[in-house]
Amino acid sequence: MTLLEIFPSLRSGMPSPRLATSVWPCETHYDDLGRITVAGVALADIADQYGTPTYVLDETEVRRRCQAYRKHFPDAEIIYAAKALMTKSMARWVTEEGLSVDVCSAGELAIALAAGVDPERIVLHGSGKPFAELEAAVAAGVGRIVLDSLTEVTLLSALATRPQKVLLRLSPDIDVHGHPAVKTGVLDQKFGFPIGSAQAAEAVERILRQPTLRLVGFHCHLGSQISNPDYYGEGVRRMVAEMARVHREHGHLMTELDLGGGHAVAYRCGDPEMNLPELADIVEDALDAACARHHFPRPHIAMEPGRAIAARAGVTLYRVMTIKHIEGGRTFVIVDGGMNDNPRVALYGARYDAVVANRHPTGAHMTATVAGRYCEAGDILAHDVSLPADLRPGEVLAIPCTGAYHHSLASSYNGVGRPPIVAVHEGRCQQILRRETPADLLSRDLG
Ligand code: LLP
């Protein structure tokens, strides 16, 4: 037992303890009652007010991450990848911090426009953009469209009525050794054109022939959860060589190089994450060397972090429904959410921490598997986590680092609607997206 546990009154005279800032928002503490607070709001109060499961999102943490990118990459364009988490508030916060926005569907585009994002600062992505989405993007006047196939070159040149800036997506043949589902830099995958291939050359020629299309640069996206910055240095070298080749062969000078996203975050304490100052140095050095080698003027660098902006700002709250000690097996803590609000465990084998949020954990601990409420054995949220041995139904569990690819990947499996998002900021909370109800589900069902 610690002194604090014997004399809880000592706590008020001490600075409140913090939870690890590598996985929790910076302003995460225990309050005098031993409850976890984020941005000054007790998570247990949010659970009481809005129900569970609920995504909590710390506005200051989102802004802080944007500011870190702006600080370490002062000359680069930072484009928030909206697929990580897109709401009007999110779009507003990131653009107020000077970021542009990458959207990959008409839906994300509509949210960005509704939030008042300047269309010129929007980039459209997608490996199979439907005609109507290209049409919507052109009508909205989006700044750049990243072309992914020859079909899109044809469609867009037919659609564009005024000069449309485009980038061409190339796969640079870099294997970042990630999960196969999120490996995008290798040649044999569905995105873009293999670097140096005949198809890539044909795409460049076709775009250059179109009077309405302005090829301003190349794009690549190496993959997800990349913590080794050297891969980006290699990306810069290969892409600049290709830009220089187009310059030599066509006399066409491209000025933008978009290196995509994929910067790793720590999901659990001790996980590796991308070091931004190191990444900045490596990209800078690679750019200097490649441009000197190919006598090519320095392109303007863009990066598209999604996870690294949103992940750590998010905490998901669940209520414990029941606890099962399986004889000769594991202890399952079953909560009222699961794979619907976090499919990342089932999809990618992701690992999370889970912490009791309504009281400071004291006394004995148990090792447990946090499982969801859905009708699948694979519906697990966290493996082998340490929780209080006296945990009871009704208590609140918090899983940190759930701001990116949680709400955006959520489903309404088993007829359970998606959770709300409650934003916290300077001691106040506000629901920015409401819970999906059975009435919402029924409203789509036309009978
Ligand atoms: N740019 C492009 C073109 C992308 O395809 C992506 C992610 C990003 C940027 C942002 O990547 P980030 O910085 O967020 O890693 N559902 C998976 C992640 C899929 C990422 C797809 N593309 C997950 O939950 O891990």
Automatic annotation (TrEMBL):
Keywords recorded for this protein, A-Z: Amino-acid biosynthesis, Decarboxylase, Lyase, Lysine biosynthesis, Pyridoxal phosphate
Binding site for pyridoxal 5'-phosphate: G262, E304, P305, G306, R307, Y405
Reactions catalysed, as given in the entry: meso-2,6-diaminopimelate + H(+) = L-lysine + CO2
Class of this enzyme: lyase
GO biological process terms on file: lysine biosynthetic process via diaminopimelate
PROSITE patterns: ODR_DC_2_1
Its EC number(s): 4.1.1.20
Organism superkingdom: Bacteria
GO molecular function per UniProt: diaminopimelate decarboxylase activity; pyridoxal phosphate binding
Family annotation (Gene3D superfamilies): Alanine racemase, Lyase, Ornithine Decarboxylase, Chain A, domain 1
Associated pathway: Amino-acid biosynthesis; L-lysine biosynthesis via DAP pathway; L-lysine from DL-2,6-diaminopimelate: step 1/1
Stretches assigned to the Orn/DAP/Arg decarboxylase 2 N-terminal domain: 61-311
Known cofactor(s): pyridoxal 5'-phosphate
Catalytic center residues: C375 (proton donor)
Binding, substrate: R307, R344, Y348, E376, Y405
Modified residues (N6-(pyridoxal phosphate)lysine): K83
Similarity remark: Belongs to the Orn/Lys/Arg decarboxylase class-II family. LysA subfamily.
Assembly behavior: Homodimer.
Task of the protein: Specifically catalyzes the decarboxylation of meso-diaminopimelate (meso-DAP) to L-lysine.
HAMAP family (UniProt xref): LysA (MF_02120)
Name listed for the protein in its UniProt record: Diaminopimelate decarboxylase
